[in-house]
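Lecture notes, unit on binding sites. The following record was shown on slide 14. It pairs a sequence with iron/sulfur cluster.
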Amino acid sequence: MSARSRKHALRERYWERIPLNQLSQAEWEGLCDGCGKCCLLKLEDDDTQEIAFTRVSCRLLDTETCQCGQYEQRKTFVPDCVVLTPSTLKDIAYWMPETCAYRLLYEGKPLKDWHPLVSGDPKSVHHAGASVQGWAIPEFEIDEDDLEEYLLEEE
Ligand code: SF4
Ligand code: SF4
């Protein structure tokens, strides 16, 4: 997903007091912390349906800024990129990264202190080591048959 945060037209501490389905588009997108973790490739266990993240990222992810390189046209290039909305969240939250702001709020948990909305610093997610900055490997750099070798222990 990896949305881009927009700072305008955001009601004060809206994430703590306004239901997700009543947020403006700017507020909804502002919830994204910019971690880039949802843009990591995942593997699903055929038997248990458990999802495991790898350290390999979608080819459109800039692994330094952790932003999608073609956010507005991403579905053209990556048709299975998930579009997160208040109505799709219930079906998606369970496999989003545990630190994802959308998942946290869906589960009734507070945002992390390093979330840019809380810290006021868009880079705090990176400074806290909570993003994929510096360690994600773009998918075009690996052989897709080797994906299992890049599994993360937990995400
Ligand atoms: S995991 Fe969640 S908070 Fe992080 S980039 Fe993806 S949508 Fe945004
Ligand atoms: S196209 Fe790729 S990089 Fe862009 S938001 Fe979707 S998963 Fe992330």
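Take-home: Strands lie at 40-44, 51-57, 61-62, 67-68, 137-138.
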